[in-house]
Amino acid sequence: MVIAFIITPICYKWRSMSKLILYVECIFTTVVILNISKDVNIWIIFFTFCFFYPAFYCDSGAQIIFGLGTLTLNLFGIIPIVYVLPMDSLSFFTSLSLLIGFFAMSTSFGMLIIYISEMHSRLQVSNEENIKLLDGMHEGLLIL
Question: Total domain count for the chain?
Answer without folding.
Answer: 1
